[in-house]
Structure formats: C-alpha cells, structure tokens
C-alpha cells in the first residue's frame, strides 16, 4: 500500500477519522496537508507527527471548509510545500439529529454549509491543479445514510444524499481527466461524532477511527489504473 511522497489534503482533520487518517498516511510516507477550524488541535497533530518521527510530513492550515479563501489557502499551501496534489479527502462534517419540526433554520444552514458546501468548495479549489496534472483522486467521506434514511435524521441524511449526488455528477465530469472519485460509506464509528462521545459502553464493537484510516489508506494506494468508486464498511455488530 504505497503512498510514499504523495501529497494528500484532508479536511476535518483535527479529530476522529480525519486525524487518524492523517497520522497513518504520514506514517506510510505521504505528505499530508490538514485543515480544520481548530488551530490548536491541528498544532497538536503536527507536533505528534514530528515527535513520532513519521516518514512523511504533516502541514496544518486552520480554516473553515466552507470558505473559498480558506480552502484556496489550503490548496496553495500544498503546492508551495510539495508542488502537486495527489489526493483530496473531504472528511469535514458533523450531525444534528432531531425531528423536522425541531430543527432550526440556523442548524440546517450551518450543517449544510459544512457537510455539503464544504465538500464542493474544497473540491473546486483543487480541481484546476488535478486537471492540469492529468491525475488525482477525490475522496468524500459520506455515510451509509447516503443510501438510507431514519427518523430524526432528515437533516443529516439530506446532507449525505447531497454528497452522493455531487459525487455521481463529479465522477462523470472528471474521469476523462484521469481523476478518480471515491465515496466512502461508513456505518457506526466510535468517535466524538456521537452524543455520548468516544469510548462509551454503548459504542462497544463499533468501528474505530483507526479502522476508517486503514480503509482510507487502502483506497488511496491502489494502482493508477484502479479506482474504487464506492467503499462501504460497517462493524460486524451493525445490521444494514
């Protein structure tokens, strides 16, 4: 699973899946540009990578994934440091789980800005470079709820269905440029994402962020002629 010297951008990298993926890819020799809103968490991630003597590098750029100027700065940082972009992992996202009549307009707008607009903004910022290179890989960390719904999940599932549609159209647009698009659909992951937090007894047997990181390593390390269009992963304990 060779990612040596690949330049990989990861959004939502301050915690959970994004953080675990950044560390694992750097351990395997990738140069990783990480972004999230928390500058302190990103600095800690950089420090951990440096002190851990990983083979690759981690460079942090704090920013809002829904901001065009912030994501342009992330892309420019990758080019300034490493001269190319090989993979963009759209991982930033969060959930709000309420019945429809309990969701506020502000909650709707904020979640859609991160989960959906953020995916668009970072992808759009990187696309000119990927097209000019004639290669690249765009990964979107969605959820298995991009393909199903549940009560109390109208807002979150709508955002994931939107990501699914975005990927489907994007895939048709960029394949002729040598650019891969992969949708990652995870089941239950034991992380900060859930209300009861990481490590709660109710999360026993769920996927760990490190499991998702291993999945990401597999996806982005395939040979140039191989693309995994969709990758769905669940804990054995979860029915689907």
Automatic annotation (TrEMBL):
InterPro entries (UniProt xref): KR_dom, NAD(P)-bd_dom_sf, SDR_fam
A UniProt-annotated Pfam family: adh_short
Domain of life: Bacteria
Residue ranges of domain Ketoreductase in the record: 6-185
SUPFAM superfamilies the record matches: NAD(P)-binding Rossmann-fold domains
A GO molecular function held by the record: oxidoreductase activity, acting on the CH-OH group of donors, NAD or NADP as acceptor
This protein's UniProt keywords: Oxidoreductase
Family of the protein in this entry: Belongs to the short-chain dehydrogenases/reductases (SDR) family.
Descriptive protein name: Short-chain dehydrogenase
């Amino acid at each position: 699973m060779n990612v040596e010297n690949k330049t990989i951008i990861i959004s939502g990298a301050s915690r959970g899946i994004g953080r675990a993926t950044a560390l694992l890819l750097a351990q395997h020799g990738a140069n990783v540009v990480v972004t999230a809103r928390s500058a302190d968490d990103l600095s800690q991630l950089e420090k951990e990578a440096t002190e851990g003597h990983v083979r690759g590098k981690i460079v942090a750029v704090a920013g809002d994934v829904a901001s065009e100027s912030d994501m342009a700065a992330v892309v420019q940082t990758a080019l300034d440091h490493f001269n190319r972009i090989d993979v963009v992992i759209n991982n930033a996202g969060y959930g709000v789980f309420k019945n429809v009549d309990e969701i506020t307009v502000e909650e709707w707008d904020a979640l859609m800005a991160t989960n959906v607009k953020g995916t668009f903004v970072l992808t759009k910022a990187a696309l000119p470079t990927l097209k000019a290179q004639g290669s690249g890989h765009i990964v979107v960390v969605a959820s298995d709820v991009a393909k199903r719904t549940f009560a109390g999940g109208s807002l979150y599932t709508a955002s994931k269905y939107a990501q699914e549609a975005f990927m489907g159209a994007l895939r048709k647009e960029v394949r002729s440029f040598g650019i891969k698009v992969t949708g990652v659909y995870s089941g239950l992951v034991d992380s900060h994402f859930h209300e009861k937090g990481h490590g709660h007894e109710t999360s026993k047997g769920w996927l760990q962020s490190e499991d998702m990181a291993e999945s990401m390593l597999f996806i982005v390390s395939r040979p140039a002629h191989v693309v995994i269009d969709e990758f769905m992963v669940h804990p054995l304990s979860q029915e689907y």
